[in-house]
Amino acid sequence: MKKIDLYLMKSFFTSLLVVTISFTLIIIIINVIEELRDFVDHEVPLVKIAEYYFYWCGWVLKSFLAMFILIATLFSVSILARHKEVLAMKASGLSLYRMALPYLVVTLLLAAGHFYYNEYIYPPANKRRLEIKQYTIEKHSRASDAQVSNIYRQVRPGYFYTMSRFNADRMEGRDLKVYVTENDRMERVITAPTLVYRDHKWLARNGSERIFSSDSSETFREFDVLILSDIRDNPKDLAKRIGKPEDMGIEELKGYINLMKRTGGPYAREAVDLGIKYSFPLASFIVVLLSIPFASNPRRGGIAVSISVGALISLFYFVLFRILQSAGYNEKIPRELAIWGVNGLFFIVGVITMLKARK
Q: Each residue of 70-94: pLDDT tens digit?
């Protein structure tokens, strides 16, 4: 590694540190203003507020690192250009591609670090942030977490059940209804006010069963206890409150998708978010392809211009990203396009911009 590479990386990391701290403080101040009434009304201690925003910085880093890198690159290169350092490098035989190399290598490593951070560091930190918000700031009761409402599960094609409520602590559900169909014909309907999980079995209590035969006759019977051996769901799966997919780690999200596949629930939204966990960190690398050719021209440089251009590119990226993400959620476009479309577009534009730039 040459001294020029170390110099460029030092300039970049200095800019990245300044940009990250500055924008994080601005975002925190805006959020404090929005949350101030809740802090005062619920008499939240200053220590808890500080702890909340310590973990909240993790969300800022997860969500805006690509924007910070884009602005830092524009800022760093534009300062070099304004001071004629880019011109001096070119005069000494250093091409724009060679000058861009340390930026590309560093941002590729940052993209890998961003992926690791999102998967292993952010989820537990964000969980703590949400706990502080829910129990300390919003004063919700922890006991309410044991209650889950409006449960729907498909055990297999033609066999599904519903409950109005399920209590995880007691492993007890209310208002059970089981429907069994065959060739679009209803065969059985089981209703019971209570469903309990005991000795690894699901037991319907004090209910009734209606059996419909092919000749349209009906058999009705009541029961005290009925073992529902077809239902094999784990109570933990029923009781688990599903957080936002973007707040889960990859393995946790994969587990939820597998659960939905097994029980017949929808998972298109989660499948898109799973793919985005791989594609989004690469934005940190791709945006550099756009920023270096622009900032290396001294006539385009300057702090204000760098921030403005970075903000505009970031805004366009995130708007287009959300549009494709929403279309993927609703299965309006192929899942791969929703996941990789924006990165692909920006990568192509970035490569073309680099090729057309003055070397």
A: 889 888 888 888 878 877 887 888 8
Give the distance between the most distant pair of CA atoms in the chain.
Answer: 94
Q: Report all structural domains of the chain as residue ranges with CATH numbers, in order of start.
A: 3-139+270-356 (no CATH), 146-237 (2.30.30)
User: Tokens at residue 341, please?
Assistant: 């479309």
Those residues whose C-beta lies under 8 Å from the C-beta of residue 205, and which sit 6 or more positions away, are 192, 193, 194, 195, 196, 224, 225, 226
- The answer to whether 309 touches 292, Cβ cutoff 8 Å, is no
d(CA 358, CA 155): 62
Token pair, residue 228, equals: 């529902």
Give me the residue label for tokens 């340390």. Answer: 102
Question: What digits encode the pLDDT tens for the residues 293-349?
Answer: 877 766 655 567 767 777 788 889 999 999 999 999 999 999 999 999 999 999 999
Question: Which sign, positive or negative, has the C-alpha torsion 275, 278, 280, 286?
Answer: negative
Give dist(CA 84, CA 78) in Å, integer.
10
- SS3 for 139? coil
pLDDT, tens digit, 9 for 90 and up, residues 190-249:
999 999 999 999 999 999 999 998 887 899 999 999 999 999 888 877 766 556 777 778
